[in-house]
Amino acid sequence: MDLFFNNNVTEGYKNHSQIARRLTEDWVERNMFCPICGHSVLNHYQNNKPVADFYCCCCHSDFELKSLKSSNKILSKKINDGAYDTMISRIKSYNNPNFFFMNYADGAVNNLWLIPNHFFIPAIIEKRPPLSANAKRAGWTGCNILLSEIPESGKIQIIKNSIVIEKEEILAKYKRTKSLLTKNLDSRGWLMDVLACVERLPNKDFTLNEMYLFTEELQAKHPVNTFIQPKIRQQLQRLRDKGYIEFLDRGHYRKL
C-alpha cells in the first residue's frame, strides 16, 4: 500500500477543497481493498452519487470517504457531513454507507479508519443551525457526525501513524462487529449506547453497580423509556451473547 498521493491527478484544479477531494479519492481507488469481504479493489462511483463514493463489486458494500488535513494521531471528535434530514433518513432506512475517515499531511495518508454502517444511529448525528436567510441556500440544515459517541469497537484502524495494519486483522475486526448488526433502530441504539458505556469503564472487570452509574446519561438519550436499569441488564445479556463480555458471577462481568 503506497501512502503517498499522486499529485498529477490535480492538474488543472485550483479550488483547495476540490484538490483535496481528488487526491484522497484517487488514493482510495489506487490502494484500498474492501475491508468487509477482502476483495482487492474498490470502485469509484461516477457522477457524484449522493449516497456514497465507492463500492465493492463483490459484496456490494458502499463506502463514503471523509478526509481531514491533519497530523493528529486520533480520530476527530466530530466531522461535518451533508444535509441533516438526508443523513437521518439514510440511517433509518438502513441504507447508509460504511465510512472511511482519513487524516493526511505532507502529501501522504497518516491514519485511516473504517466505521461500519451498523454503528450509525440517529443519536450520533448532530443537527447544525440552518443557513441564514441571506445565504445562497437559505434554510439549508447540515449535520455533524459525533465520532466521539461511537464505541471504540466500531473504529477499525486500517492505517495507524503511517503503519499499514495487516489485511487479515482488519477483516477479522470487521467480522467480529457483524454480531452487533440489527435492523431494528431502537435496538441498535440501545446496544451501541450500552457498549460505549462498557468501554468507558477503566477496568477489564466491572460490576452492575458501575453500569448503573450511567443511568442518568442513558435516560437522557432514551427519554421515553422509564425502565433504564432493566434495559441496561438486558443489553449486557446481549453483549454477552455476542461475545463482547462474559458473566463472572452475579452482578460481575469481564470485557472480552
Automatic annotation (TrEMBL):
- Record key words, sorted: Hydrolase
A GO MF term:
type II site-specific deoxyribonuclease activity
**In this entry, which stretches build a coiled coil?**
none
Residue ranges annotated as transmembrane are none
Dam-replacing protein HTH domain location is 186-255
Which InterPro entries does this UniProt record tie to the protein? DRP, DRP_C, DRP_PD-(D/E)XK_dom, WH-like_DNA-bd_sf
According to its UniProt record, the EC number is 3.1.21.4
Under the heading CDD domains, the entry gives: DpnI-like
Catalytic class of the enzyme: hydrolase
| Name the record gives this protein | Type II site-specific deoxyribonuclease
- Which organism's genome codes for this protein? Akkermansia muciniphila (strain ATCC BAA-835 / DSM 22959 / JCM 33894 / BCRC 81048 / CCUG 64013 / CIP 107961 / Muc)
